[in-house]
Amino acid sequence: YQRRVHGIQKQKMSVKVATRVRPYNDRERGLNATLCIDMTPVTTTITNPETNEKRTFNFDNCFWTHDGQTKDPSGIDIPDGPSSKFQGQNEVFQALGTQVLDNAWTGYNCCLFAYGQTGSGKSFSMIGKAPNKGIVPRVTEEMFERINRTKSETKQYEVTYSMLEIYNEKVRDILVPEERNPSGGLKVRERPSGECYAEGQKDMAVSSYAEIEKWMDYGNKNKTIGETKMNKESSRSHTVITIKFKQIELIGKKQSVKSPVINLVDLAGSEKASQTGAEGDRLKEGIAINKSLTTLGMCINILSEKASGKAKKEVVPFRNSVLTRLLQNALGGNSKTIMTVSYTHLTLPTKAQVQIAVV
Q1: Closest among 337, 327, 295 to 188, alpha carbons compared
Q2: Torsion sign (Cα): 79, 82, 85, 87
Q3: Which residues pair with 40 in a beta bridge?
Q4: How far is residue 274's CA from residue 289's CA, in Å, rounded to a whole number?
Q5: Which of 8, 12, 52, 339 is deepest in the core (most CB within 10 A)?
Q6: Do the beta carbons of residue 6 and residue 56 sit within 8 Å?
């Protein structure tokens, strides 16, 4: 089954794209930001406040989180009434996170990206803030609930968890102390099978959600953040969480093994130096971030062209960025890919941001 989004064909369920818009933050309220985005469950409409020109884009899911919410007794954001179009963390997980698990259970590699401008709410979608947990904790919690329901004498599971940071095109394992990371970063290598990996990264064996939660909290505390004019706690690196999920089942006298890999990627925010006020190290970081995001967009675009029968001889530039090199297997081949695109209110999404979303 084929669908066409803005002239680009995609295989249903191989690539899924969702968008989300968050509430105003303090800076936007102080600047009297204009609400230039509207959504239905499957469309996002962007209005140019200067010309009133409207453009509508179709996506698999569009999550309205801007308003229309209240809190339940436990502090979780929920719709404030039957007419509210608010969709919170649970709705995002049900639409996207459960699909990641369903694909992994059938043996497919899975990759979920969170993309958007700095300060647009990507990390909230991926990690969340208690009690409104994001996709990553919900996926891992549900994974172990499914494991506990289905494991038996003839069916066993093995799970490992790793967490890498890509900062200024260097790979760092944030589950180990800083002094144990080489100064030049971990080298990205390729196995004879074609699988790319970070040499020396630690895969932590885990047997419960509580263990993953412990490692996730440890890794998040080690992430590189910095303040810009647009975001007081701007992530200055890409975070790649990898869950290796082995299913071992005895069928008669034969052993069946499925070894899918789940990559959950919180991308650093795209940014313009003129808006973030970046100087010195912040400017250098922004250049590296934008380079890797541009390469990611190019890779996705060429892969889409190849899938539709075009650009058959064109080389996908995975090697142009450490991010795309490391995620080469997650972007192509036996992989199901989901991308969430987060929007802010102060500026219209750039052309590149819209293009990467609709590819």
Answers
A1: 327
A2: positive
A3: none
A4: 15
A5: 339
A6: no
How many C-beta atoms surround the C-beta of residue 255 within 10 A? 10
- What number of CA atoms fall less than 13 Å from residue 173's CA on the CB side? 20
Cβ atoms of 164 and 220 closer than 8 Å: no
144 three-state secondary structure: helix
* Dist CA 222 CA 108 (whole Å): 30
On whether the CB atoms of residues 216 and 163 are closer than 8 A, the answer is yes
| Tens digit of each residue's pLDDT (9 = 90 or more) over 336-347 | 889 999 987 655
| Residues 236 and 284: beta-carbon distance below 8 Å | no
pLDDT classification of 314: cutoffs 50, 70, 90: confident
Task: Report the DSSP beta bridge partners of residue 258.
Answer: 247
Q: Going by C-beta distance under 8 Å and a sequence separation of 6 or more, which residues neighbour residue 15?
A: 304, 336, 337, 338, 339
Q: What's the pLDDT tens digit per position in 124-162?
A: 999 999 899 999 999 999 999 999 999 999 999 999 999
Q: How many helices (H) and strands (E) does the chain have?
A: 11, 23
Task: Give the β-pairing of 188-190 and 196-198.
Answer: antiparallel
Give the count of beta carbons closer than 10 Å to the beta carbon of residue 100.
27
3-state DSSP helix/strand/coil % of the chain, to nearest 5: 30, 35, 35
